Amino acid sequence: MNDISFRTEVHEQIGKIGSADIVVGIPSFNNARTIGHVVRAVQAGLAKYFPDHKAVIVNSDGGSSDGTTDVVQNTSVDDFSAILLHHRILPISKIAFPYSGIPGKGSAFRSIFEIAQTLGAKACVVVDSDLRSITPEWIELLVKPVLEGGFDYVAPLYHRHKFDGTITNSIVYPLTRALYGKRVRQPIGGDFGFSGRLAQFYLTKDVWQTDVARFGIDIWMTTTAIANGFKVAQSFLGAKIHDAKDPGADLSSMLYQVVSATFELMEGYAEVWTPIRGSAPATTFGFEYTVGLEQVNVNTARMLNLFREGLKNLSEIWLDILGTGDFREVERLGTLADGEFSFPIGLWTRVIYDYAIAFHQKKMSPEHLIKSLTPLYLGKTASFILSAEHMEGYEAEAEIEKLCLEFENNKDYLVTSWK
Question: Which ranges carry the Mannosylglycerate synthase GT domain (predicted)?
């Protein structure tokens, strides 16, 4: 096993299992309240759709103190006969252990990749431990394209509340799509399927002491798969209902780790993304249907106050990064009342491209740079929420599509300035 040090009992469990066709990883940290449902859904999905495949559930835990790993070990589906058409031939093994390395989701994933490699898995799935909407069908939709369709990477496609996933909608999806030309709608969705071959490829990369080890793992997995020519698809999973966060609350750390990982990937794959223009749809599996979604409550007044505070405290940095013209436009936004506030999508596109260029040119430390982006992100997000307040979900999605096209149409600006 590479350089991850598992405890003796984990080695023994892996040795007893010997090999597996499918590995399902569930990273966790204090998720005792929700992880039992996730484990039951995974067990049911494996039993129902892959009855003759040897499968292992791996819970890679960040040192929970609420009994999360006990819940995993003690959870089982009470009555398989209620959901199965076929008798399951092979039992499903479970391994639950605390991972080592930098605390974060990426370190948890690395342990899962290691176990998948050791067991010789053909297909792997990772799912979040705070999911309340996962069903057994998610396992089918994330595994089958790999086992039967020859795909190496399957991203999730879900319906989310229009105010959920704001970092994805305003930065990561439009930017990644414009850079690499692939319309993977949820590049940091958190629930992915991938081949054993790709898990092995991930392990060859020396990124485990960087922000990839924390929140950056999702965008790193998606980008690494696309940029290295692996066959990528997405599967419609229904609704994503989880413990959503108010985008006005403290998302600064998550924003920093996701954006810095995205910008860092731009450095490594510049030769891949600079010639690409426009975008193409990703192959999509699953039957898309309408689902009810939980309301996500947001405090736009707080977000706009933080934007205006940023204007007072960060004006020199913003002027240096954005240049005089766009900085004056940002200043004008600061004079608007809450009800009139509207952040133009062209301006937002240039803000993100200017920050990517400043990161590339090492104008200041990455942490200092990207944290100075937070008030601008909150202003853009508040603007979207105010404009989409009375929109249906499909109308809000159409606004995100307009933003994506703006990123694609302005890509020359980024490429020309990237020296």
Answer: 103-261
The residue extents of the domains of the chain are 8-285, 300-418
Can you tell me which residue has the tokens 């066709």? 21
CA 170 to CA 400: how far, in whole Å?
A: 8
pLDDT digits (tens, 9 = 90+) for 6-55: 677 788 889 999 999 999 999 988 888 999 999 999 999 999 899 889 99
- What Cα–Cα distance (Å) separates residue 255 from each residue in 110, 172, 265, 304? 21, 10, 15, 17
CA 145 to CA 235: how far, in whole Å?
9
What whole-number distance in Å separates Cα of residue 383 and Cα of residue 60?
38
Per-residue exposure over 206-243, b if at least 16 CB sit within 10 Å of its own CB, e if not? ebbebbbbbbbbbbbbbbbbbbeebbbbbbbbbbbbbe
pLDDT in tens, 286-343: 987 777 767 777 889 999 999 999 999 999 999 999 999 999 999 999 999 999 999 9
| Residue pair 128/186 in contact by the 8 Å Cβ criterion | no
Which one, of 181, 32, 199, 38, lies nearest residue 119 by Cα?
199
Q: Is 256 left (phi over 0), alpha (psi -120 to 50) or beta?
A: alpha
Structure tokens at 78: 């009470």
Q: Tell me how many degrees the CA angle 169-173-175 measures, rounded to the nearest 5.
A: 115
Q: Give me Rg for the CA atoms of the chain.
A: 22
**In angstroms, rounded to a whole number, what is the distance separating the alpha carbons of residues 263 and 210?**
13
pLDDT over 70 at 269, yes or no: yes
The DSSP secondary-structure symbol of 170 reads I
What's the pLDDT at 78? 62
State pTM to two decimals.
Answer: 0.91
Helices (H), 19-162: 32-49, 68-74, 105-119, 136-147
Max CA pair span of the chain:
68
Is a pLDDT exceeding 50 seen at residue 228?
yes
CA separation for the pair 353, 351 (Å, rounded): 6
pLDDT of residue 75: 85
CATH number of 8-285: 3.90.550.10
Q: Is the pLDDT of residue 87 over 90?
A: no
Residue 293 Cα distances to 19, 38, 181, 289, angstroms: 39, 18, 29, 12
C-alpha–C-alpha distance, residues 416 and 114, integer Å: 40
Dist CA 52 CA 56 (whole Å): 13
Cα–Cα nearest to 195, from 224, 215, 160: 224
